[in-house]
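Task: sequence design from structure.
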């Protein structure tokens, strides 16, 4: 069945990373000319909607976006991730009720935004879920200056937005690589791989990336990219034994691979308890699972405590091959992650397969 929901791309990134420049680049590539005045469907045959959030009294970004789109929704004086999310809901509700539907929606968040609540918006009620689908969270990274934001000392309890933006990325655009030295770029790449090892990185200058790698990417859908991500993590290794005992106070990721099948009841109980107790610190979770008692391959994908499940039967992930070993893989990205506890908890969900009882030997008749 064809998915008729409007794809939404959330473009995030710290202040000055090049988000508005990226939007202009996308619009320029979508249209046949660099600047095209509005026409009902645009020269490219697509109707694009931009939702912008500018933190400040005057919206500068709106004036910087080229005039190639039908409509720009502005939301000023606040961060899209917190106090004005109600405005975002109202804008989306307005869009949802339009007769003329948009072909794609781009949400450009302020540089101080946490992407998680923005993504949560699309899972709030059935109306949102039926009308929109999150296509990808695209994070812009300033290769020259991002480490200043990452290493910035924050008061206790204060979020480091730059780290969270890295953690939530489905696609990561490493911008301004021409301005960074080799050592600076190496440090940034090491930081990215430490926070979000499986993310696809697109390097560029002036936000000029291959638009086809951003549009209709379906990167937020767990089944499409999760297998490749987990395989890449396996190839890279999950870290030394010493690292597994580190209680990381910064944003990090934990990957776990188990041979065997999980007990469904044990896993549901463990995951539910984990997210209820540590949901705010677990930014993203995802996994491919083999469950005892079923031939289906199961997948899960979570943003904080909001979870989605899918299966090979539903087409979310490729089914088990006949000779494919039953292996469970999970990734947790977040803050204050206890690697040892996560590994122990996940392993406790393994199903205990009882050996078949042998038939009792019949006694020989006495002579």
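Answer:
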């Amino acid at each position: 069945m064809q998915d008729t929901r409007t794809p939404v791309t959330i473009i995030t990134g710290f202040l000055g990373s090049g988000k508005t420049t990226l939007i202009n680049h996308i619009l320029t590539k979508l249209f046949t000319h660099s600047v095209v005045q509005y026409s009902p469907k645009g020269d490219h045959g697509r109707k694009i909607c931009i939702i912008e959030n500018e933190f400040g009294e005057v919206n500068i970004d709106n004036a910087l976006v080229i005039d190639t789109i039908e409509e720009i929704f502005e939301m000023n004086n606040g961060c899209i991730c917190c106090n004005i999310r109600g405005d975002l809901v109202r804008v989306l509700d307005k869009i949802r009720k339009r007769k003329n539907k948009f072909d794609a929606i781009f949400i450009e968040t302020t540089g101080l935004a946490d992407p998680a609540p923005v993504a949560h918006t699309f899972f709030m009620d059935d109306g949102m879920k039926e009308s929109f689908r999150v296509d990808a969270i695209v994070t812009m990274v300033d290769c020259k200056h991002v480490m200043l934001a990452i290493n910035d000392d924050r008061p206790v309890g204060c979020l480091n937005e730059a780290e969270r933006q890295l953690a939530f990325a489905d696609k990561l655009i490493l911008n301004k690589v021409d301005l960074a030295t080799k050592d600076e770029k190496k440090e940034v790449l090491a930081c990215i791989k430490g926070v979000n090892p499986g993310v696809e990185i697109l390097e560029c200058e002036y936000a000029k990336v291959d638009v086809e790698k951003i549009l209709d990417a379906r990167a937020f859908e767990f089944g499409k990219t999760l297998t490749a991500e987990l395989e890449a993590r396996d190839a890279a290794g999950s870290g030394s034994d010493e690292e597994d005992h580190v209680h990381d106070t910064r944003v990090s990721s934990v990957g776990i691979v188990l041979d065997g099948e999980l007990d469904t009841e044990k896993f549901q109980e463990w995951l539910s308890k984990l997210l209820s107790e540590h949901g705010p610190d677990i930014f993203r979770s995802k996994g491919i699972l083999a469950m005892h008692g079923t031939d289906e391959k199961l997948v899960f994908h979570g943003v904080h405590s909001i979870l989605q499940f899918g299966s090979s039967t539903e087409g979310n992930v490729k089914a088990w091959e006949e000779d494919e070993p039953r292996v469970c893989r999970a990734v947790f990205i977040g803050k204050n992650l206890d690697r040892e506890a996560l590994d122990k908890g996940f392993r406790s969900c393994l199903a205990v397969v009882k050996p078949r009882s042998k038939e009792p030997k019949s006694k020989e008749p006495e002579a």
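The first strand starts at residue 6 and ends at 13.
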